[in-house]
Write a structure and sequence with these properties.
The chain is an alpha/beta fold. The chain folds into 2 domains: 63 residues, Beta Barrel (Ribosomal Protein L25, Chain P); 161 residues, SPOUT methyltransferase, trefoil knot domain (Alpha/beta knot, 3-Layer(aba) Sandwich). The protein has 7 helices and 12 strands. The strands form 2 sheets. It has a 7-stranded parallel β-sheet with strand order 8-7-6-11-9-12-10, with helices on both faces. It has a 5-stranded mixed beta barrel with strand order 1-2-5-4-3. A hairpin with a 5-residue loop joins strand 3 and strand 4. The radius of gyration is 20 Å and the shape is elongated.
Length: 235
């Protein structure tokens, strides 16, 4: 059964304009069809389509699940975008499938990319959310300067920065996860890693330096490894 994004009002679900067009014109759906609808906030409804127009498709909710597959933690990954967008998009797709709540893109000293297209990123994440039948849509934040980001207020978060500087103290991520944090923020650097100044500055703002293992990963691999580790460690 296909999943669509829309609004859920008591016993009625309304697909948004883009999803309505896709259902009516691309899939050539009909009244009486059964679909799933999510608002991206944890609600998942089984819906019987009752009305189809040019811009709006509506349906009657047959079954509603709230907090569908809600995790017991909140994961925010802040990552320096890779030069090749395909690599970043691969990470975003897989991280969404595994489970991630928020994504921020960082502009760092060694950053290879100075801009991103948020609308394209959102479409990739929406597609991955639908493909994996999830009811929570990850939040996407635009490119932010590293120094501004680490100064932001992340109340209640365990804040970590992954880096490869062996002479700066690092804690294995698995050790951090042993304390079962409810909210965790992970910083993942570019191919050239974070600069020493960035690492030190982050630690001055209460970020813990972490290691993802003995291997040296590419940016998207490191980020995916971290998402997997959190998923396994905090289930």
């Amino acid at each position: 059964m296909k999943l669509f994004f829309g609004k859920i009002h008591q016993d009625i679900a309304v697909l948004n304009e883009e999803e309505s067009h896709h259902f009516a014109k691309v899939l050539r759906g009909n009244e009486g069809d059964l679909v799933h609808v999510t608002d991206g906030k944890g609600n998942l409804a089984k819906v019987e389509i009752t009305s189809i127009s040019k811009k709006v498709v509506e349906g009657k909710i047959i079954e509603l699940k709230t907090d569908f597959e809600k995790k017991n933690y909140y994961l925010h990954v802040a990552i320096a975008p890779t030069k090749t967008m395909e690599r970043l998009e691969f990470f975003l797709e897989k991280a969404t499938e595994i489970g991630i709540d928020e994504i921020t893109f960082l502009q760092t000293f060694h950053s290879e990319r100075k801009n991103i297209k948020v609308e394209r990123i959102e479409k990739i994440i929406q597609a991955a959310t639908k493909q994996s039948l999830k009811a929570y849509l990850p939040k996407v934040n635009d490119l932010t300067k590293f120094n501004d980001f680490i100064k932001s207020d992340f109340e209640g978060f365990v804040k970590c920065i992954a880096h490869c500087e062996s002479d700066i103290e690092r804690t294995p991520l698995r050790t951090v996860l042993e304390n079962n944090p409810q909210k965790i923020l992970l910083l993942i650097g570019p191919e050239g890693d974070f600069s020493r100044e960035e690492i030190i500055s982050a630690e001055e703002h209460n970020f813990t330096g972490i290691s993802l293992g003995h291997q040296r990963f590419r940016t998207e691999t490191a980020a995916l490894q971290a998402v997997f580790a959190v998923d396994w460690g905090l289930k």
